Amino acid sequence: MLSKQEISDRILVQEHFAKEHLPSGHSRQEVEEYKSQIKKLLKEKDACLVAHYYTDPLIQELADETGGCVSDSLEMARFGSVHEASTLIVAGVRFMGETAKILSPEKRILMPTLEATCSLDIGCPIDEFSAFCDAHPDHEVVVYANTSAAVKARADWVVTSSIALQVVEHLADEGKKIIWAPDKHLGAYVQKQTGIEMLMWDGACIVHEEFKAKGILELKQVYPDAAILVHPESPDSVVEIADAVGSTSQLIKAAHDLPNKHFIVATDRAIFYKMQQAAPGKEFLEAPTAGSGATCRSCAHCPWMAMNDLENIMQCLQEGKDEVIVSPELVEDARRPLQRMLDFSADMNK
Question: Which long-range contacts (CB under 8 A, 24 or more apart) does 167-173 make?
Answer without folding.
Answer: 167/142, 167/341, 167/344, 168/142, 168/194, 168/196, 168/198, 169/194, 169/196, 170/344, 171/140, 171/142, 172/196
